[in-house]
Target: malate dehydrogenase
Amino acid sequence: MFASRNAIKLAARSFSTSVPSQSKVAVLGAAGGIGQPLSLLLKANPRVTELGLYDIVNTPGVAADVGHINTLSNVAGYTAKDVDGLKKTLEGAELVVIPAGVPRKPGMTRDDLFNTNAGIVRDLAQACAEHCPNAKLLIISNPVNSTVPIATEVFKKAGVYDPKKIFGVTSLDLVRASRFIGDKVGKVVDVPVVGGHAGVTIIPLFSQVEGLSLTQEERDALTHRVQFGGDEVVKAKDGLGSATLSMAYAGARFADSLMRASAGEDVLEWAFIRTDLFKNEGLEFFSTYVKLDKNGVKEILPLPESISEYEKELVKNAIPELKKSETKGSNFVASSN
Ligand code: NAD
Ligand code: LMR
Model:
C-alpha cells in the first residue's frame, strides 16, 4: 500500500506552453458559478485549441464573452434548447469538465446534493459515453465520492469504460492545503491530499511537505481546516452557493496537468480514481498519487511509506464513509432505467 518517498517526485506547475498540442475541451455547466470562471481560465490557456460550452441556460452569452479573449481557440456555446447542442459540444473533445449541478447552502452536507446532482451527472456521463467515449472526464459536481462511481457505472453500461480516463477533481483540497501552510513555509509548495472529497475523507499529508514542522495542535487545526474548507466558503457566501473562483482555478490547473501529460510531459497529480489500492477493504475509488500520460492515468502510486501514524489513522477512518458513498453512486445507476 505504501511507496518509498524517493518514488515520488512532485510535478512543476505552470501553464507551460513548451510543447504545442491540439486539445478540445468541453465544459458542462458552463454558465454556472464555477463554469464561467473555469471557461475564462481555459480560454486563456494556449494549450486549448477549441472550447465547447454547454449549460441548460445562458451559454451563448458566456461563449460570446470569453470568445473575445485573444488566444487562438474557437469557442461555441449551446443550451438545452439547441438541437444537438450537447452532441456538438462533446464531439471531438479530449477533456470534458463537469461542474453541472446544484451547490450547497449553509447546514447542508455534500451528500444532501445527491438527489439532484446524481441524475444530472448520470445523464451528462451518458452523453459523453455516446459522443466522446475516449475523452477524459473531470468530475467536479458534488458529491464527488458518489458522482465518480455514477459516471463509471454509466460508462460500464455503455461498454466504453476506461478507468484511466475518469477523474474526480479534488484539486481544490490541494490548493487549499498549499495556501493554508504557505505563510509558514514561506513559499508555495505542493501538499498531497488523498482519500475523497467530503469532510473526514479529505486527508492532507502534511508529513510529506519538506521543511514543514507542525505542533500537534497546529497539525490538527490545519487538517480540520482543509477537511472543512468548503464549509468556510459556504458559510461566508451565506446562502449564495459554495466555492466557485478557487474551484475554477483548481479545475483549470488539473485540466492543464492532463493537457501537459498529453503533450508528453511527466506529470504527477492527485485525483479521485478507480484503484486497487484498497481492494482488500472492498473500496474501489480513492484519491491518491497518479502519474499521467496521454491516455490519462499512466500509473497509480501507493501512499508513501513515510506518512505519519496520525495520517494512517485518518485513512483508516475515511474508508467506511468512502464505501458508503461509492455504493450509493453505483446503486443509483444500477436502479436507473
Ligand atoms: P451553480 O448553480 O452556480 O452552477 C451550476 C450550473 O449547472 C448552472 O449554470 C446550471 O444551469 C447548470 N446545470 C444544471 N443542470 C445541468 C445539466 N443537466 N446540464 C448542463 N448544465 C446543467 O453551481 P456551482 O457553484 O458552479 O457548483 C456546481 C457544482 O460543483 C456543485 O455540485 C458544487 O457542489 C460542486 N463543487 C465541487 C467542488 C469540488 O471540489 N469538486 C468545488 C466547488 C463546487
Ligand atoms: C468545496 O470543497 O468547496 C466544494 O466541494 C463545495 C462545497 O460544497 O463545499
Observations:
- The pocket of nicotinamide-adenine-dinucleotide (ligand 1) is lined by residues 28-29, 31-35, 54-57, 99-104, 113, 117, 120, 124, 140-142, 144, 169, 172, 197, 241-244, 247 (CB under 6 Å).
- Residues 1-20 have pLDDT under 50 and may be disordered.
